[in-house]
Amino acid sequence: MTTTEAAGLPVSGHEAAPAHTDGDHGHGVHGYHKQKDEHLKRLRRIEGQIRGLQRMVDEDVYCIDILTQVSASTKALQSFALQLLEEHLRHCVADAAVKGGDEIDAKVEEATKAIARMMRT
Amino acid sequence: MTTTEAAGLPVSGHEAAPAHTDGDHGHGVHGYHKQKDEHLKRLRRIEGQIRGLQRMVDEDVYCIDILTQVSASTKALQSFALQLLEEHLRHCVADAAVKGGDEIDAKVEEATKAIARMMRT
Amino acid sequence: MTTTEAAGLPVSGHEAAPAHTDGDHGHGVHGYHKQKDEHLKRLRRIEGQIRGLQRMVDEDVYCIDILTQVSASTKALQSFALQLLEEHLRHCVADAAVKGGDEIDAKVEEATKAIARMMRT
Amino acid sequence: MTTTEAAGLPVSGHEAAPAHTDGDHGHGVHGYHKQKDEHLKRLRRIEGQIRGLQRMVDEDVYCIDILTQVSASTKALQSFALQLLEEHLRHCVADAAVKGGDEIDAKVEEATKAIARMMRT
Fold it and tell me: Where is this region: Disordered (chains A, B, C, D) (predicted)?
């Protein structure tokens, strides 16, 4: 159990986490596990946007309007990634720091590379 | 039907298209119309990637591996947008230039704003 | 001298330019030529931001505040690029379309590749 | 002194830090302090690229070639930001995790917002 949970703080910087957030911690599941339902909802919404894009192409909607919708879907994917990353920093990376040893260096390097990939798209 | 289609060539945004690609203009069909199937195939592939992300979240895959997949989907969306944009420039924008008058200014401004939205995501 | 300049209007990429901006074409000057001073002013401002970043690092300013300034400089560079691109589309690309032939295809492909490079950074 | 330093590990995921890296730690200076010289060198190089852009505009270089140079400068700024961020995560964020309490939540949220700003440019 992390000090964070001991302090009973919301686990997401963006909104209060569900009441039972700490429920399955300690089983070695990743930080984002606690917000699984929220993540799945977000992803289903994005899946719907992609299907909407298929309809737009199929109905010969004006190019620029399709591009606007593509930008919206990309933004939604990026914000999903940011939330996942925040939970990762708050749990996996912070835990590695608490554990001590050199795991923190590997974790930070790994996270930075993931951020670089996100920035380059 | 354009010479391009007659020749059965891919009109991929990334290889030069034959000189006169304006065969079916005036029918008010947008440039991307001719590559509808290719676009729909791309979008179905992206839809599959988003469903793959749902499975990954559902199966508690490691955060960083999910982020890698999100970057791949974002890249795929961006490259779809780029191909759509290239066809838009090649057809709608070029046609406005040929027509003359100030439509070209509106078209270029509209395209630039779409590019700005794509860059900001 | 173009009507635009005669009218003393900014040919800013972000407001519609007057109908016929092609006054001085054929002199082989690139579209952005007419806004050289504005571009140089923008770039000098960005150069100042980069020197500001050096001062921040030198004075051990907090990492996050430096990152905020880096984002501002990147945004400024991107918006300079967008204005340059808009003028390029309005002049070089539009001219190729008017000339006819397959130059337009090469110009559009070249512009799309430049946009892709801008998006990937 | 952090466990990381105790373990005598390189402080940067990208290259071994200079021999004296730990020299001035403990004075409460930020992580990046140890790589000040490297950061200043990077920023001076970027400043030179921006001056190069001014020359290109002044000499009426072809728009697309200027855009290529803008992309290179943006990439250089982004990679400077990534290195700064990595050091921030490795020091400020990891230290907050070790200290315990709720500071880690504020630090992670602050870092995530900085990453979001970097991604949106």
Answer: 1-40
